[in-house]
Structure formats: C-alpha cells, structure tokens
Write a sequence for this structure.
C-alpha cells in the first residue's frame, strides 16, 4: 500500500541533525537546517555530515578551493578539490587523489590510507572503509587495521556507497539503488532514484522523478522504503525556483575540445517539436565534430531568429553514403518523422542505444558501448574523441549528452542539447554548450549526473587549418546536397571525397579550401589527386590578392600525386580555393582532396623548371601594338600568368597576349602545364 502526503516546503530531505531536519533543493546548492538557510554555496547540500555535537558540510565556491564548513567552528578544512566529509566513528574522512585522509573535528590530520586513485563516495564502520572505484567500476574495501585493500564482488556497477546498521546502500550506474550486505549479497533493489540515504535503522529515503515531458522531469516525489517489507511511503514535491546552482559554461579551452553545438528544440525546424530528440541531436553533434554531413541550413524562429546548419537532418529524410533515413519515428503529439530522429527513436519516441551506435557507424564513426567507468570516458576524451552518454540527474530520468572534456576533480564538460541544468530554465534557452556537470558520486558544486552507458564516437580528429588543407582538417568546407557526396579510402592521408561532374552550370556540389597562411606573398598552389574517381578536368577558382583567377587541372593525368594549380599572390585575410562539380562534361568522376599552399620567396625562386624551347614567346621584344603568341607544345592544356617587375599579376591567358594589353616594360611569364611550371622573360616596347 502506498501512502501519499503533500510536502509543504519545496525541499528534498538530506537527513537529520538531532531533532531538526536537514534539507536541500534538487540541485544541492542550498542547505537548510529546519527552517533556517545555513548555506547557499554550490554543493552545500551534497555532502552533509551530522555528528553528536556538530553539523558539517562541503562548499564549492566558484573560483576558490573547496572546503568543509562546521556549524560550530566555520571552515575546518580546505583543498583544491576533495570528496567528503564522511563519517568514520568520531572522526571525519575525506578523499583526495591517491589517499583517504582521517581528520579530527578541528580538521587536523590524524592518519591516512592509500587508495592509488580518487574515489568520490566512501563510508566506514570503523573496522573497514568501503569506497567506489570510478576508475574500475567496482566496490573496494580497506581493512583499517592492516590497510589491506580488497574488491567486493557485486552483480552491478556501483557509483555511490553508504553504510548503516550493518548494510550498504549502493547507488547503481544504471539508476536506482541496491541494499546489500557488507559481503555484497543483494537484499533489496530500488529501480530508480537519487539523493538516497539511510533515514532509520530499517528505512532508506530517496527522491524519485514522477512526471516527464521528453527528457525533462516535471515533478518529483520523496520515497521512504522499509527495508524489511519493501513498503513505500511517498511524498509529492515540486521544484523551487530560488536556488539553482549558478554555474556558467566553462571558458577553459585547455580542459575541452570544441564541438559544434545544437539545441534539440531551438535548432530544429519550427514545425517540429524536438523535446524528445536529445539522442539524435547529441549524435549529430558528434558526427559534425568530424565534419561529415554538408550543411542543410534552415531558419529557426526561437528563441530568436537564427540559421541552423544541421537541424533539418533531425526530422527530415536524407541520403548519405548509400543510406536513406526514411524510417519513421514518434515525436511529441504523435507526429511521425524520418531523418535521424526516426532512425534512432523509432516507435518508442526516445533514443534506442543500438540505433544510436548504428547511425553513427553509418556516418563513418566508430561507435560501441564503453561501459560506465571514469577511465573509459577519459581515455576517449584524452584522444579528443567525443563521447555520447546516456545519463540521469535530479532534473531528468533519462537524457543523452555529449562529453567533450573533463577536469581532474571528476567534473565533465558537456554539450547538453537541452540547455544548462545548472541554471534556471533548463530546456527554454540554448545555453548548453560546454556546460560542467559532476561525475556520479562526486560533488564539485555542479549538477551531479548518473551515467547509464557511454558510447564511443570516434573518427580521425580534424587537424588545425594551416598551409595544407585536407578533408580531415579545419578549413575544408564541403557543400551541396549530401546524397551526391561519396567517400573513398584513397587520397592524401588515406581519404578523399568525390562526386560526378556536371555539364551545365552552376555547381551542385563544391568545396572551399580556406588556408591559414602566415603573410601576404606568392604561393605555389598544388592539389592532391587520388588514384580513384578522378578523371574530370577540375576548374579551380583562386582568390588572389588582385581578385579571383581560374586554373584547370586534368585529374586523369595523375594518380596519388600532387598537381600544380599555379602560383598566386595571396593574402591571409582572403586566401581561398574553390572547385565545384561543373566541368562542362557530364558524369565524369571528380575528386576533392588536399590543397597545399607553399610560400615562394620571390618570383625568380619559385619552384619552376629552366626555360625550355617548348615554352617561350614568338618574338622578344614585342611592340605594344602587336599580339604576343607563345610557342607551346601541341598538347598544352595549362595557363599562363604574366607578372610585372613589382611582382603584380597583370593578366592570365592560355595562348597569347592581345595587342595593347600590356604597357611598355619588362615582364615574366609563368607557364603552368599540368604539373610542370616554366618561366620566360620578355620585353614590351612602344
């Protein structure tokens, strides 16, 4: 039988101190003793320890060291970060990297035990200390007399541990709690809940989500369970609005790598309700971190008007790399949509783990389940690979996030597609980029997550833009309908993109190569031609300092080779090469691989051949009123650039210089012929 009560105060119980109730809000960012507010520091409601004579709690003030605060004596302990306080007889335990410290009630160190790691949750019955190894995903026990450490075998992955009356209350990675004996025998399973504690000799109290809208919890209830009978006493509560954690997104680039952000509601089409699309949106952010899909920009009206580059892929059908995403999935209001949402969410409306990994794999990522340990997560992040995570928190019973960084104190940096859970208005604002949450069992003053499963989302990390731009680097922009693009495992660095050429303008698909060059100067521009799907003559458009110029390269003449496009005077602010699929000939293969920009110290020192009799002018000098034809091989298929003495590009031609095109003076002709570059000087007279 369930007994329901209405809680008059909007608070969550955190235990008792004497006869007074200790409570906090859902975020753990405010601490009440009875009706008195005793702390509003982040984390103050997360670790509370009541002794016979004192009440102690942890505070995590932004920008300062974490500390233990005593009701009687104010601050008694401070470190950059730690876990605690926890009870061990009449003393206090805290965990720091590598060891557990035992303090007296003045904060003075009494003794320590080596752990070799940094556990976030621990407890003791004086004879033993139990702690959860987030590194290994197991429960460990230290004999306080011998310091011998052993592993306690469990049938689940633990994230938190508490001791009471000879039993252990274990938080589980997949949600909820288990009550086990000190030997690890499970007595009672609680399917879901958070903020649990022993509230009596035979009672456990915790908070449970009650009503949901998509990933967001709308109401909660406090549940007390009789361990002997399993009988529940339930108290309905509502969230307060005055005590959310005030934690902004991180601005620390050393702790994370940048991932494009998308909000599941505000970066999808206006006609679509993305409240259930945390899984597809998080997977899409992972895919676009590796620059897979081309932009399909749409205008989104809320919360203010803006363009979204990839939101249309969430509820709309598309084809990519041979897969057509036309499976229908349920969204709010019984609206059935295709696209990433349809494929990943199907008929249940929420993300299906197996379909998330399948979808990312079909977009050329390596994706599989990683487990739930801190080490599994950080080993991926250390390689700059994104991690998609199925999580819970006080504000959601199930939500998919993307991890893109971490701190040593066991906080994770996330792109939360529903917004920032640390601030009021979660779900209503697009403020979820690079937010900081706490790993299960750790209290650093942020919203504490539960992690049900981690998923790898690996591919080759894009290298920084520089003087070489490849399809696996920044500065490479692939544009046009994604169904026309094909990827192959050949080309520079082992990959390239190709499509079919078109016979009529404009370009349907095209690529922009945007380099980072050090200074305004002459640059030899070369393109890498892969060994397959490269038979068309590509038309390259180069944005030089004097304007756009055009050069052609017959890709069929090369195979896994660099081909010269030409030498151009380029500026760091405007340098760019563009090539599209329009060539004038339909249905040939055209590849879009790497482009290399090599600075030349002067025109005379360019990477050119000696003057050849096969590449020269018909007469020298030449009168301004006469045209100047060039002697060129019969199979010449290149172009000619003419420079004046100051190094300025004067004109580009293919066969001859028209009469009156040049003023009297000395000129240099640079002749580019599909991989070879020749030069010749000539003079124009009156």
């Amino acid at each position: 039988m369930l007994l329901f009560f209405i809680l008059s105060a909007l608070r969550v119980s955190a235990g008792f101190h004497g006869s007074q109730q200790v409570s906090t809000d859902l975020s753990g960012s405010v601490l009440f003793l009875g009706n008195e507010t005793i702390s509003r520091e982040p984390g103050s409601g997360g670790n509370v320890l009541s002794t016979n004579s004192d009440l102690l709690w942890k505070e995590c003030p932004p920008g300062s060291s974490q500390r233990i605060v005593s009701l009687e004596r104010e601050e008694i302990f401070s470190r950059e970060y730690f876990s605690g306080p926890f009870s061990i007889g009449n003393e206090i335990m805290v965990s720091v990297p590598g060891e557990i410290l035992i303090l007296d009630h003045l904060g003075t160190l009494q003794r320590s035990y080596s752990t070799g790691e940094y556990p976030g949750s621990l407890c003791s019955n004086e004879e033993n200390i139990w702690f959860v190894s987030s590194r290994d995903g197991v429960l460990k026990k230290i004999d306080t007399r011998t310091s011998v450490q052993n592993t306690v075998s469990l049938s689940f992955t633990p994230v938190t541990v508490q001791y009471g009356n000879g039993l252990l209350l274990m938080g589980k990675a997949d949600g909820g709690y288990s009550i086990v004996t000190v030997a690890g025998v499970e007595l009672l399973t609680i399917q879901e809940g958070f903020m649990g504690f022993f509230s009596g000799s035979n009672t456990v109290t915790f908070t449970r989500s009650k009503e949901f809208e998509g990933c967001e919890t709308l109401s909660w209830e406090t549940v007390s369970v009789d361990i002997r009978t399993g009988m529940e006493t339930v108290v309905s509560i509502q969230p307060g609005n005055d005590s959310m954690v005030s934690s902004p997104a991180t601005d620390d680039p050393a702790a994370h790598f940048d991932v494009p952000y998308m909000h599941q509601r505000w970066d999808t089409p206006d006609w679509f309700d993305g409240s259930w699309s945390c899984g597809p949106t998080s997977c899409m952010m992972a895919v676009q971190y590796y620059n897979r899909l081309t932009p399909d920009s749409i205008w989104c009206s809320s919360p203010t008007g803006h363009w979204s580059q990839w939101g249309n892929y969430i509820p709309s059908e598309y084809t990519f790399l041979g897969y057509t995403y036309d499976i229908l999935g349920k969204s709010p209001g019984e609206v059935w949509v295709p696209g990433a949402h349809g494929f990943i969410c199907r008929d249940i409306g929420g993300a299906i783990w197996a379909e998330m990994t399948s979808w990312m794999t079909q977009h050329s990522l390596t994706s599989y389940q990683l487990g739930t340990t801190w080490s599994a997560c950080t080993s991926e992040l250390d390689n700059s690979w994104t991690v998609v995570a199925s999580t819970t928190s006080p504000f959601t019973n199930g939500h998919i996030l993307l991890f893109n960084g971490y701190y040593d104190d066991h906080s994770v940096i996330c792109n939360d597609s529903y917004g920032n859970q640390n601030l009021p208005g979660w779900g209503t604002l697009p403020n979820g980029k690079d937010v900081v949450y706490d790993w299960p069992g750790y209290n650093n003053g942020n919203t504490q997550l539960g992690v049900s499963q981690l998923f790898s989302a690996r591919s080759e990390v894009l290298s920084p833009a520089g003087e070489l731009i490849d399809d696996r680097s920044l500065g490479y922009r692939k544009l046009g309908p994604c169904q026309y693009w094909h990827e192959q495992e050949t080309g520079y660095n082992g990959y390239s993109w190709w499509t079919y050429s078109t016979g009529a303008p404009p370009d349907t698909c095209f690529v922009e190569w945007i380099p980072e060059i050090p200074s305004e100067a002459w640059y030899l521009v070369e393109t890498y031609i892969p060994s397959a799907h490269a038979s068309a003559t590509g038309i390259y458009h180069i944005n030089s300092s004097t304007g756009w110029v055009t050069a052609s390269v017959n890709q069929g003449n090369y195979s896994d080779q660099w081909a010269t496009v030409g030498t151009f005077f380029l500026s760091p602010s405007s340098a760019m090469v563009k090539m599209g699929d329009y060539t004038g000939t339909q249905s040939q293969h055209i590849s879009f691989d790497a482009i290399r920009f090599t600075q030349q110290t002067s025109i005379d020192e360019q990477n050119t051949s000696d003057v050849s009799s096969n590449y020269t002018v018909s007469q020298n000098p030449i009168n301004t009123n006469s045209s100047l034809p060039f002697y060129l091989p019969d199979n010449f298929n290149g172009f000619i650039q003419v420079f004046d003495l100051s190094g300025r590009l004067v004109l580009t031609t293919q066969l001859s210089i028209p009469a009156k095109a040049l003023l009297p003076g000395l000129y240099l002709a640079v002749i580019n012929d599909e991989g070879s570059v020749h030069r010749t000087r000539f003079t124009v007279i009156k």
In short: The two ends are 109 Å apart (CA to CA). The first helix runs from residue 278 to 289. The chain has four domains: 3-201, 260-457, 468-600, 616-685. Residues 1-9, 602-611 have pLDDT under 50 and may be disordered.
